[in-house]
Amino acid sequence: MAGSILEMPAKNRVFQRNESNVAAIVFKTDAPVKARVLAGKRIIKPWHMSTGSIPGIPAGGPYTLEVELRGGGVKSATGLLVGDLWVMAGQSNMDGCAKLVDLEPPSRMVHAFYHDDAWGVAKDPLCRVLDSRDPVHWPAPDADIEALRAQDRAFREYGGSIGVRFGKEICKIAGVPVGLLVCSHGGTSMEQWDPQKKSEGGASLYGSMLRRVNACGGKVAGVIWYQGESDANPEAARLYKDRMKALVAAMRSDFGSPRLPFLYVQIGRFFMDEIANSPVSWNQIQQAQLELASEIDNVAMAAAIDSTMSDVIHNDSISCRRLGVRLAELARALAYEKRGALGLAPDKVRFEDDARMEVRITYKNVRGKLAPSSHVWGFFVEDADGTRVPLVSAKANGSKVFLRLAHSVQSGARLWYGRGFSPATNLRDKSFAAPVFGPVSIG
285: closest CA among 329, 244, 225? Predict the structure, then answer.
């Protein structure tokens, strides 16, 4: 019989499985109670005395936890799942800012831990930061937060995200239910995500995320991250790589997982006037993100440069779904050790001839072959004196791209792919867009 304290797990909660493909369903009690676990009418764990943990529940569900009450009767928690938890963090393109049309349909096997600390079936809009218990997500200490929340629910027109499709793809790949821990916040910088602020708890982004992970058991299968737009300025761009390395290291330490899979999206397009605003820092962030994929163990990156847009900087719902699939493909290889490759990326850049008029770019992790075979757009060559070198042709063959230059170039010539805020690009393999890169010296 229950004592004076009995706190059941939230309806629809997802518990992280362990390496044996099972999890303990936990609840809070101050005295031994009689409890059992059901899957429909099937008994998974029969009635027995428990002090708040029922171990050995296999991946799957939904499950129902039943606890016998003092004086008779039963208290139940329904919709419980055992599977994999994934943190969703970063800024607005992880929040999901696509217009609320053409959305990914929800799945009963993909749930979300929303900003209000409630579990539910994952459904867009996933991210409502105003619902958070943590003040870091509120606009101002003196804001009428309840009025703002009501307004947001009444008039929200955007919120299509990566998460629902990602969760459904992971469910197919891993064969287990998925829980998405929604922790992102639009417009935030790496300085705001600084792990050294975790002692501030819910007054910091990292502290809020860590509290929420701990509220869900402290262990996760991995992290998906989409951020960088707010750091595309000269001061922050030069610090971006070091800050990202510190963030990944802190998550792995605080989540107790030294090889925690960390999957992220390279920032994509920005419809910004390049005459009035220099794109140099934007491209620096993209290059830093590309380099991080080879400088940190067990991370992988997907490009977003082929995204269609909901507004000047946010992906539309079709592109969000596509990015969800790409991140899940990276998870296939990185988190689930199944057949798959990491993100498409340039590997080597060389002159093909002594005349220094033909450049060969070799790509790695190519799924199938690069396309299109001719009329490849997006490459930009600059001579050592800073003048642009016209291209005669740009063709792809297998895992290589060949550029024919209009004239010979000097030592120190540099190459970009996707230079600028919103370049015309079309190179891809059968699953991924080629990422933005540059400048790189042509060897």
Answer: 244
